[in-house]
Design a protein that fits this description.
Layout (H helix, E strand, L loop, with lengths): L4 E8 H7 L7 E3 L5 E7 L7
Length: 48
């Protein structure tokens, strides 16, 4: 089973460290920048 994720926001690394991570089904994506991207399972169709 394949699950598509979509980026829904970004947080500064320091904020994420202070929070201790995220709850729910969100994941953090490290793209090497100062911010960590927040992604959640995509709910829409294949509009892309």
């Amino acid at each position: 089973m394949t699950v598509r994720y979509e980026v829904v926001g970004a947080l500064d690394r320091g904020v994420v460290d202070a929070m201790g991570g995220l709850g729910s089904d969100a994941i953090l994506v490290d793209d090497g920048d100062e911010d960590l991207l927040i992604a959640q399972p995509a709910t829409g169709g294949d509009d892309e």
